[in-house]
Write a structure and sequence with these properties.
Pyridoxamine 5'-phosphate oxidase; 20% helix; oxidoreductase; coenzyme F420 binding; F420H2_bilvrd_red/Heme_oxyg; alpha+beta; oxidoreductase activity, acting on the CH-CH group of donors; single chain
Length: 130
């Protein structure tokens, strides 16, 4: 996926991304998230049984968008599929890695968390230069 090379850096910053999942009736639901890159996948965490967690367990299709951390006119999006989920102690290394990226420390909550891995299917990004 050649566009992934240009898109990936947008998700390796402290910019807050927006995750769209699908409700039971097919309507979209959007939530701000902290996100990071794990190899060729995106990774984020949530509390177990939140709406986004339930939506993804039922339908793995997602869209994630982000604006540039330094330039809000630069942007990227990923449409993809949730391909993996960890919870409990298995999730904590990923939770802490993401929390370190955004807050510089381990995440305070230590229970009831789930990590999701997103495999990009379509990516797009645009960088605006001044």
């Amino acid at each position: 996926m050649s566009d992934w090379i240009e898109t990936k850096p947008f998700f390796e910053t402290t910019a807050v991304a927006h995750l769209a999942t699908l409700m039971r009736d097919g309507s979209p639901q959007s939530t701000p998230i902290w996100v990071d890159v794990d190899g060729e996948r995106l990774v984020f965490f949530t509390e177990v049984d939140t709406l986004k967690d339930r939506n993804l367990r039922r339908d793995p299709r997602v869209a994630i968008s982000v604006t540039g951390a330094e330039n809000p006119y630069s942007m990227a999006f990923v449409r993809g599929e949730a391909v993996g989920r960890l919870e409990g102690d298995e999730a904590l290394p990923y939770v802490d890695r993401i929390s370190h990226l955004y807050e510089g420390r381990p995440y305070g909550m230590r229970e009831g968390l789930a990590v999701w891995f997103i495999e990009p299917r379509k990516v797009w990004s645009r960088t605006y230069e001044d």
